[in-house]
Each structure stands twice: as C-alpha cells, then as structure tokens.
Amino acid sequence: MRIFSGIQPSGIPTLGNYLGAIRNWVALQEGNECLWCIVDLHAITVWQDPKLLPQQIREMAATLLACGIDPGRHILFVQSAVRGHAQLAWIFNCIARLGWLNRMTQFKDKAGKDREAASTGLYVYPNLMAADIHAYHAMGVPVGDDQRQHLELANDIGEKFNHDYGVEFFPRIEPLILGPAARVMSLRDGAKKMSKSDPSDQSRINLNDDPDTIALKIRRARTDPEPLPSEPEGLEGRPEARNLVGIYAALAGSDVPGVLREHGGKGFSAFKEVLATLMIEILSPIAAETRRTLADPASLDVLLRDGAARARAIADPIVREVERLVGLFPA
Ligand code: TYM
C-alpha cells in the first residue's frame, strides 16, 4: 500500500507526535511504500519566524531520521519543494464546500475566539492536507486521533471530484489511527491535547528534553490521589490517569489492560517513576542521534532535496492529469 503522512515543522516534536504518529510510521515502513512529508506550507498558516523556519525544518528532519524513518527505502521531503501540493490544493479549494470547512473542529480550536483574525490559509488547511495525500494516490494515512475529521474531508473532496468530473480518479483513503496513545493529552490538563505549540513547556515532553527534565515533568504531571485501578473501567472519569497509562502502554509495546494487570494498585509516585525510567530509556538515544545528524546540515539538505525529486516524480504526472480532467489550458 502507498502510505502518506505529514508533520508540521512548527516546533520540537512532542511525545504526542512520537506515540500518535512517528512510531507508527516507522513500523509501517515494513512492507509499504511510504512518503513522509515535513509540511512547511501548513506551518505558515500561523505565524512562523522566517529566520527560524529553515532550521526548524532541519530539526524535524533530523528527529524523524533519529526515530527510524528510512530515507533510502522511503521518501522524506519538504512539502513546499513539490509544487504540485499547492497546485492541487487550489483545485481542491474549488471542490470543497464552505459548509464542510465550517464543521472543522481544529479550525475552531486554533482560530480561538477571534476567528476574524485567523488567516484564510488556516481555514483551508484541510484542503491542502487532502492535496498532500491525493497528489500521490496514497491510500493509507497514519495519524493521531485529532486528524480523523480532516481525513474524512479528504475523502469527501476525492469523492466529489470523481463525481463532478465523472471519473474514478482518486481512491478512498484509509485513516490508520493506531495504538494505545493515538491521543496523548497535556501533562497539566487531561482535557487538552499535548501540543508543540502549547505555551506551557511543562504540558509536554519534547523529544529533545534531557533525562532530568523528563523525570521532573513526569513527577509534576497532574494526577488524582487514587491508586491505579486493575481494570480499564477504573480509568473512567480519570483523564490524567488514563493518559499516563496510555503513554506507558505505548512505550512498553503493551496495551492498557496489560499495564493495569501489571501495575494496578500502585500509587502514582511509584508508577511515575517506572514511566519516567522507560521514557528516558527510549527518548535519550533519539535526542542524541538528532544532535549528531544536525551537526551536518549540508548532508541533511542533500537528503531532503533527493526526497523532493523522488516525490515530484510521483506527484507531477498525477497533478498534470487532474489539470487535464478539470480542463485547464495545457501548459
Ligand atoms: P502535526 O504536526 O500537528 O502532527 C503530526 C502528527 O502527530 C499527531 N499528533 C498526536 N498524536 C497523538 N497525541 C497527540 N497529542 C498528538 N499531537 C499530534 C497528529 O495527529 C499527526 O498525525 N495536519 C497534520 C499534518 C499533515 C498531514 C497531511 C497528515 C499535513 N498534511 C497529510 C496526514 C496527511 C498535523 O496535525 O500535523
């Protein structure tokens, strides 16, 4: 199966990105043809400092490589280097309906109270996502739970395009939302998603946090006074507890019932200690490898340019065919 997914270079990736997406990407590299995209065009839907953005892109690439993304057998590239994404997104702006975009919960969350002041790019963000995927005829899209609605929209766009132009051109996309940590929550508030753009650094684990910082953030993570239950039903109404158990399960390659069988009855201070130890064991080598890769930015740039050339070879003919189907004047 051809697989596509993307990540915004809008900050240091978090444990949420790692457990909800990147780790699953690495596993899916076995037996599939994968495209992994650093989506800078999506990142600029909110303000990004132009002096910092190129370095943020390199840091994201280095982190993905350190996590196990394989740029030899698969394709790692930067979105803006393949012009077809923006070209197809424009056509999709003309396919998607205002009513569809008005239902997008992520826009409402990100735009906040002052919706009038949000960029129009933020509003059509999901159309560009649909273009990312459909430009490759990708069929599997591994993402965290927060992207489910955007992928439904991408299917609606593909279907409406096929219907309007009387073709069977875009295939249906299958969202791959995998594992016990598809929605990692903030360490400070079990009702909020862990996010690289949260103003509070204490709310998240960054993939470049050092061991002491990780241990401290986990120790300070919000929990309730009850011990861990032995059954998943005991996590009902305890979002912070559920979050830490889900994180542990994902890191240990286990599931929630398995973790509770092993650790049920423990108090949180003891559980947090085993959680921090496991997290440090897994994340420290990633941070070290990221630093090593970043020391040679020229090689990183070559690798990303090579990825973009290989991505263009797939996307360009597909986007040209869309333009022909739409009746745009041949270039
Ligand atoms: P981004 O950069 O916000 O997130 C990248 C991936 O990480 C997942 N994720 C999480 N998973 C679990 N818990 C969390 N707290 C958490 N935070 C983030 C996201 O679900 C995502 O899979 N819009 C996309 C980027 C994108 C894309 C695409 C994805 C652009 N084009 C095409 C798939 C296909 C995004 O959310 O990026």
Query: Percentage of helical residues?
Result: 40-55%
Number of strands: 5
CATH superfamily of the largest domain: HUPs
Overall residue-averaged pLDDT value: 97
What's the CATH topology label of the largest domain? Rossmann fold
- Following the backbone from N to C, one meets helices and strands in this order, namely EHEHHEHHHHHEHEHHHHH
Which architecture name of the largest domain does CATH use? 3-Layer(aba) Sandwich
> Ions, cofactors, ligands: which are bound?
tryptophanyl-5'AMP
User: Approximately how much beta-strand content do the residues carry?
Assistant: 5-15%
Major sheet summary line? 3 strands, parallel
| The first-level CATH class name of the largest domain | Alpha Beta
Termini Cα gap? 32 Å
Number of discrete domains: 2
Radius of gyration: 21 Å
Low-pLDDT residue spans? none
Give, in spatial order, the strands making up the sheet with the most strands: 1-2-3
